[in-house]
C-alpha cells in the first residue's frame, strides 16, 4: 500500500499538468469468488504482490490509497463482453 501511495503521489508532484490518470483492469477483492474456483483459492493470495494476478483491492481500498496521494477516484466496470469483466474494474484518478 505504501508503494502505491508513493507512486501516485510522485506522479501528482512530478507531472502537475496531468489532471487525469486511468488505471485499468484492476482485480476486485470483493469479486474474487467470480475468479477463483472453490478448490483453487489459496488463503491470502489476494494480498501477495508476487502472485500471478498480483494484489487484489476493493474499490474502497483503492480510493483510500488514491486519496492519500492527493487524487480523487471514480470507478467503472468493463463491458460484459470483456473476458474478465466479472472480477475487474477500472479507476480514473483526478486532481
How would you describe this structure to a colleague?
This protein is of the alpha+beta class and 95 residues long. The chain has two helices and three strands. Strands 1-3-2 form a three-stranded antiparallel β-sheet, covered by helices on one side. The longest helix has 13 residues. It is globular and about 45 Å long. The model has no long low-confidence stretch (mean pLDDT 95).
Brief write-up:
The chain is α+β, with helices and mostly antiparallel strands.
End-to-end Cα distance, whole Å, is 20 Å
Element string (H = helix, E = strand): HEHEE
Regions with little confidence, pLDDT below 50 for 5+ residues: none
Write down the overall mean pLDDT. 95
Reconstruct the topology from this structure.
Layout: H1 2-14, E1 20-27, H2 59-68, E2 72-77, E3 88-94
Antiparallel strand pairs: 1-3, 2-3
List keywords for this structure.
single chain; 95 residues; alpha+beta; three-stranded antiparallel sheet; 2 helices; globular
